[in-house]
Amino acid sequence: MSSIDEHAERFTLLRPLLFTIAYEILGSATESDDVLQDSYLRWAQVDLTTVRDTKSYLAQLVTRQALNALRANARRREDYFGPWLPEPLLLTEHDAAADMVLAESVSMGMLVLLETLTPDERAVFVLREVFGFDYDDIATAVGKSVTAVRQMAYRAREYVQARRNRFGPIDTARTAELTERFMTAVTTGDMAGLMSMLAPNVTWTTDSGGKATAAGQLVMTGAEQVASILIALFGPIQRRPDMRIEPVNCNSEPAVAIYTGEHLEGVVLLEIVDGRVGNGYGIRNPDKLAALAIARTISRDTHENPIAHQE
């Protein structure tokens, strides 16, 4: 086997894992693809006889490149029009919540929470809590001392746990059933039915990036306000034969995609808190929806899903 072939084989075997690391650090499938492409070009120049552990080496390489991308894009996110939400990730059916830790780590709610960490804290949390890398490898990846990384990991873990305790594990079947009832209620104008599914302090966030219209405010709070706006927004779907709703598996959770003809208008993801919708996310920015053209395979382990599936 030539050196080029061996570089490619090792990278391809680990690609689902590497993509997942990049995506959880960046919250963007598009940027993660760029990071992996750049990382491979660097990897192709490495003398393989110097690599003791391919998985650790490539994870460190991808993490560094993802952090560089995250810092480089910080200003762009600060100047973003309205709230910034992670890109929705279309997953193959094989990935649907098969691994609870993995499913939680790529859920929209978790990714939104990770946005509030510093870039280094986010990388340390992801590498330690999700993928189980040791502190020495993480320290090398983020360019910090092992002591600093341990302290960072502890702070990030406490911070995330304090804000995620109320959510509990993802119940895929329950979420799918509630999502179907939710969309039926909003498209038929069933205010009472919709209100019964919303938590009193529900928050609805719409990410349009200024490139698509969004009814009402981009961030709404409170069951009555959210219900009224959503019925006004989604009501036309029932009356227009060219509009349709399709169930999709986004971020290891049941979600819905809304189409006008063949044009994808938006994606809706719901976060269930104590049996009700606690948070809703509507992604309408066409740039972020473009990532849904490819179904991804994610992994925490190199023995699961060894080759990424792309359609």
The CATH class name of the largest domain reads Mainly Alpha
Strand fraction equals: 15-25%
For the largest beta sheet, what order do the strands appear in spatially?
Answer: 2-1-6-5-4-3
Number of extended strands: 6
CATH fold assignment of the largest domain: Butyryl-CoA Dehydrogenase, subunit A, domain 3
Task: Write down the overall geometry.
Answer: globular
- Kindly name the structural category: alpha+beta
Number of domains: 2
How much helicity do the residues have? Answer: 40-55%
Task: Characterize the largest beta sheet: strand count, sense, and whether it forms a barrel.
Answer: 6 strands, mixed
* Integer average pLDDT: 88
Query: How many helical stretches?
Result: 13
Residue stretches low in confidence (pLDDT < 50, at least 5 long) are 302-311
Radius of gyration: 20 Å
Measure the end-to-end span.
28 Å
Q: What is the CATH homology-level superfamily of the largest domain?
A: PhyR, sigma-like (SL) domain
CATH architecture of the largest domain: Up-down Bundle
Can you write the helix and strand succession as a string?
Answer: HHHHHHHHHHHEEHEEEEH
